[in-house]
Design a protein that fits this description.
nucleus; 2 domains; cytoplasm; globular; DNA binding; 15 helices; 339 residues
């Protein structure tokens, strides 16, 4: 019996294999439930800034709009009251995804269903997808398990779970940014992981600068650092740029992403390139930490798991491989790992 989790994974794999039907770029990334919610929150803050001059939004308003957005996109109207400025929020939400070169799960689901790309045993109903994205289905599938009862998880187990989630999010965010440099959500997560002195102020300054110049946050950071490093005619004025205090941290970040991109560009064998990228990210994340650090152990486990997935992805496409090349770009393989 195919579980619903497996159906969702097959949905994403369908998108990855047939990406030209969805997007004009193989580097388009999938926006899962957590990223959808974050994108909505940022979009609501932008709309509030336009209407009220305040770039903030309450959690209750976010959750109310989140619930309405899911029902709206899935066509599951239930006489729900439309949130304030919803049309503007929805427009801002989809504009954010477009700028970030992302598609959310609902868009992919509707495209796959409309094109008849899913087999009968892979079919998903709008209600099921709603429950999955909202988290209700996860709670149902975990019912009766140890993880479904918070009181049964000891504090040590809770901390280990948090560290594992952080490690996986950190590794996958580096991969996501490598695949899709417009993914501002991934950048926000790893800009200061490991610590580079790039806290909230640095990210805010970077975000404002990127908005003024109408470019992605990563492109803004790269452009700024290149100007400083090359000593161009704008470098003098950069001395007064709000980003100037963050040169060291931004340079560290940009140069590390450059290092990962060099691996993609120089190593043609996807299996080798993927392994080296993961190894490089691992060493970067655990540098300066002790061997017994729980985060180091979690990163090690995450990297081993992802490395095995790369092998499985390539093995599953063995019929199209040659002795010298996988025939599949590293970007596409990295994309398979990100959900």
């Amino acid at each position: 019996m195919v579980t619903f989790q497996q159906k969702i994974l097959r949905l994403v794999k369908c998108f990855r294999k047939l990406w030209p039907l969805f997007s004009n770029s193989e580097r388009t990334t999938v926006c899962g439930a957590d990223c959808m919610l974050m994108a909505l929150q940022l979009s609501m803050a932008e709309v509030n800034k336009q209407h009220h001059g305040d770039f903030t939004v309450s959690l209750s308003d976010v959750l109310e709009t989140w619930n309405y957005l899911l029902h709206d996109k899935l066509g599951l109207y239930e006489n729900m009251k439309e949130p304030e400025n919803y049309a503007d929020v929805k427009k801002a939400y989809h504009a954010f995804l477009a700028r970030s070169n992302m598609l959310d799960l609902i868009d992919i689901y509707q495209k796959c269903s409309g094109l008849g790309l899913l087999a009968e045993d892979e079919s998903i109903s709008p209600v099921q997808l709603l429950e999955f994205i909202s988290g209700a289905m996860n709670a149902q599938e975990n019912n009766g398990s140890v993880l479904s009862t918070p009181t049964r998880i000891n504090r040590q187990g809770e901390e280990r779970l948090k560290v594992t989630i952080l490690a996986k999010k950190s590794v996958c965010s580096y991969l996501s940014l490598l695949v899709n440099s417009k993914d501002d959500l991934a950048l926000a997560h790893i800009l200061n992981v490991p610590a580079r002195g790039l806290g909230r102020e640095a990210f805010t300054n970077l975000k404002h600068a990127s908005q003024e110049r109408k470019m992605s946050i990563f492109l803004m950071a790269t452009s700024f650092i290149r100007t400083i490093e090359l000593g161009g005619r704008d470098s003098a004025s950069s001395l007064y740029d709000p980003l100037r205090p963050h040169v060291k941290g931004l340079s560290n970040f940009v140069n590390f992403i450059d290092k990962l991109q060099e691996i993609v560009g120089e190593i043609l064998n996807t299996r080798i390139a993927g392994g080296q990228i993961l190894s490089t990210v691992k060493m970067h994340l655990i540098k300066g930490r002790s061997n017994g650090d729980p985060f180091c152990q979690a990163v090690e486990e995450v990297v081993q798991d992802l490395d095995l997935k790369i092998k499985n992805i390539i093995d599953s496409q063995q019929e199209t491989l040659t002795a010298s090349s996988t025939g599949v770009s590293p970007a596409r393989v990295m994309g398979f790992l990100l959900f």
